[in-house]
Amino acid sequence: MWQALAFDGYAFWLLLGLLLLISEFFVPGVIAVFFGIGALLVGLLTLIGLVDSLAVQLSLFGISSVVFLFLLRQRFRRWMHGAEADKSTHDLDDAGLLGARVTVLSDFVNGAGVVSLNGARWDAESELPFKTGEVAWVVGHTGIVLQVGNKS
């Protein structure tokens, strides 16, 4: 009796689908949404009468959820997280530092000194002997150490 009420009705699948879609907001991983879509699909097909047996419902739910997961996950992840999430793999200047103007805060000794960029202090390296107060430009970076030089 309980099986017939729980799994044969379209309401169960539609409710499960909505709950899975909502759960994606609380535990973002772009996975639950595809199981939610699969449950909604089974609920709609059950509602219009194309699917009626429990075995077919469960099989359709599992297969459609996995297919949606593998076919659409990358597209959804890019849409949900935005293009900036992938920027570092495509752009060597992932922090937007190249070409930025800096002010030298301490004389460069043995190729190392300190500069100011947007009000923040940065360790810097340069082959040029910059003096305190001079202006330089970021020509590269290694982690959080800036390479600075003359504007070219």
UniProtKB/TrEMBL annotation:
Residues 96-148 form the NfeD-like C-terminal domain. One of its GO terms (cellular component) is plasma membrane. The chain crosses the membrane at residues 12-42, 54-72. It is found in: Membrane. Keywords: Membrane, Transmembrane, Transmembrane helix. Gene3D superfamilies: Nucleic acid-binding proteins (2.40.50.140). It is a multi-pass membrane protein. Its main location: membrane. Signal peptide: none annotated. Pfam families: NfeD. This is NfeD-like C-terminal domain-containing protein. It comes from Halopseudomonas yangmingensis.
